[in-house]
Amino acid sequence: MTDFSSHRPDWWRQAVVYQVYPRSFADADGDGLGDLRGVTDRLPHLAGLGVDALWLSPFYPSELADGGYDVADHRDVDPRLGSLADFDALAAEAHRLGLKVIVDLVPNHTSHRHRWFREALAAGPGSPARERYVFRDGRGPSGELPPTDWQSVFGGSAWQRVPDGQWYLHLFAREQPDLNWDHEEVHEDFRTTLRFWSDRGVDGFRVDVAHALAKDLTEPLRDLATAELAGEDALAHLPPGTHPFYDRDEVHEIYRDWRRVLDSYTPPRTAVAEAWVPGARRALYARPEELNQAFNFEYLQAGWDAEEIRTVVTDSLATARAVGASATWVLSNHDVLRHTSRLMLPPGTDDNAWLLSGGHAPRVDEAAGLRRARAATLLMLALPGSSYVYQGEELGLPEVADLPVEVLQDPLWEQTGRVRKGRDGCRVPLPWTTTGTSYGFGASGAWLPQPPYFARYAAEAQEGVQGSTLELYRTALRLRRKLLDGEELGWLRDGTPPGVLAFARHDGWRCVTNLSAAPVPLPPGEVLLSSVPLDGDGLLGPDTTVWLG
Q: Is 274 an active-site residue?
């Protein structure tokens, strides 16, 4: 068996990484907001689950204009979440328990409260301080129009005017001014940040919006002609590497520079790119001389369809292999509907429309959604490469689609004129116990309201309960460590019914998933694990995955 233990420098190739959204994980000080001490207190849960690493979403000083991704200081801890001493204690305890620590890095932009941006506003047009960001004069007789037609991911123009008349670029919220990566001070500051966290024992980095750092800022700045081309969808309509601010070829020199920093440590620090780009282009970020891995969003976006998933898996393995990387798999994260709910939505359903309906149009069958989610999880964990698990999915949590609009925190709600409900439904604080003001999240309430049905999903309600989703994850991760061998799979097509995925791994263990609506014959072999109990009738039911020895 191949050794993919945490002692190997390439431990990440087949790791299971657990994403922690700190503000929603556990609250140690009882103020209703999750914090680093809360994470540390709950680390035994992760160790008992059997994951290899935890990835901490941003815990830096932030006014939460974008859930913590508006960073005021990349080398400190938000005082509401703790201190650097609390972080050090967290990292030390994680390592004691055998867990690696990955932190989020947000290099495309800062908060407008960052000291650099405050200096830029005070210094005025033409100042060296403004060169660290992207400031431009406006168009029109008095500069009253934005410099280009570029659009923000959160809606509206990507430009914001300041009192002296100039405009600054923000591809996300206006509180998130974009950095100018043509400026050497920006490069040096992030080298310092990489060293700062690596020196504190961090094992790796998740790189936010990795594809957006390099921008074509030559004058005159060019329009994209239509709003549709302003988003990531434009990458399919423009020659590779030519979009003015997404996936430009020059971005890779940034990551080659970072790799030299990351490789200066023993063992080398790893990194994974969040790059919303087509597969062949995404693989470039995962080259050994760059970031090691890149998130595979095609898998997350695939429908519950055997042929679609087979194609995505085949292509993803091939593109990762072409650059010497391992594939990555993810079903949920802090930006998308939880897959327990998402996988049950009929094809073509608009996620936002479903959220605006409070989850009623269409209504999702909760039990059926959980069954499908469990099958999807066992399928994912059987694939070669790394799996990224989002907090709460081991409890089977559904999306909280019916949050009242008056409690919404995601800036998408306001910045889109209250037409996009946003991502709060997957960020509702976790239930740890079946009772209490916040189901064990903290001593008081939670910053987003938890629905009463969270009690039956609580970790306490599932602990030691045979067949519970929590125990399924624990068993699957324990078996996965024993079964892993290499990074290849072979599709089993002969005798495989339509709507069924079947593949074998190196030592012959097999994964079979029935994505069809009818039972199919269960293949011969020893049943090692199934996503739901089998009836003993020799059939594999719909929305069910089985591992066979």
A: yes
